[in-house]
Structure formats: structure tokens, C-alpha cells
Amino acid sequence: MIAADNLQHYYSLFILVAQYFGPLAAIVILYTIVFVYLRRHRFIRRDRSVGDVRARKTNVMLAAISAGFCILWLPLNLFCVLADTTSLFYVCREISHSINYH
Hints:
Layout: H1 4-41, H2 48-85, H3 88-101
């Protein structure tokens, strides 16, 4: 039989994968497909300078969205995993209670 603590660890890792790594992988795969499509089809245009600038802006936007997702969601997910697998939650709660009551 699996101990309750181990189930909590497995649940935390599952949530991390489902909420962070799953969407991150989907974003990377889909944006890579968009990038490859745009790279192939931009050479068809006659005015390459306009197409190059537009493609570069699109690539920068795709990279910024991916980096934004990664940077903004990682701290929350790491905190949740640490709170579930360690006594971090209790330490933070005690610190916040001691600050509020004094």
C-alpha cells in the first residue's frame, strides 16, 4: 500500500506536469509549427525586406509569449510543489501569523 505522504507527492508532481509542463510543451510545439510555416512561406513574397521584418516581429512575439508563460507561471507552480512536499506552507503561515499579530 502506498503511504498518504507519497500520494501527496505524486499528486503534486502530476499537478505540476498538468498545469505547467503540459501547456508549456503545447505552446512550444504549436509555436514551432507556426515558426516553420512562416519561415517557409515568407520566401514566396516578392518584397523580401518587408517579409523579413514582419517575420522577425512575429518570431519575437512568439518567443515573448512563450517566455512570459514560462517566467510567470513557474514561481506559482514551484511554490505549490514545495508547499505540498515540504513544511514550507506551515513555515510561511507561521511567519505571516507572527507578523500580523505583533
